[in-house]
Design brief:
Helices cover about 50% and strands about 0% of the residues. The mean pLDDT is about 75. The protein has helices at about 1-15, 30-40, 60-90. It is mostly helical.
């Protein structure tokens, strides 16, 4: 799947596909071409009126909104449940067949 995506990406920007040889391919020309194209199009700048195919999702803003709407109480409830479930299956030394003199207390 990744090979197909790499080939498709290379075709879309007009660079040759470098295949799957045993040695690492020299991608410096590809990187230079992508760099030059990004610089030409000024993709790193906000330009008023520029049309874009999609807008990147602001996951920090979305996370903050989620915390404000459902609050930290929901997070705390789920976290406590996770901790309880993850420690529910912990083993106690009394449950194991431990030879005399072997300390199984890993909490210290």
């Amino acid at each position: 799947m990744l090979r197909h995506l790499k080939k498709q990406f290379n075709q879309s920007i007009g660079t040759p596909y470098q295949g799957t040889k045993h040695s690492a391919p020299d991608v410096s020309k590809l990187i230079r071409k992508v760099h030059d194209k990004a610089k030409e199009l000024a993709t790193h700048l906000v330009i008023p009126g520029r049309k874009v195919a999609f807008k990147a999702q602001d996951i920090l803003q979305d996370g903050a909104a989620l915390l404000r709407s459902s609050g930290l109480k929901r997070f705390e409830k789920r976290y406590k449940k996770w901790v309880q479930e993850s420690t529910m299956y912990s083993y106690q030394s009394a449950d194991l067949d431990v030879p005399d003199g072997l300390d199984m207390n890993v909490n210290e």
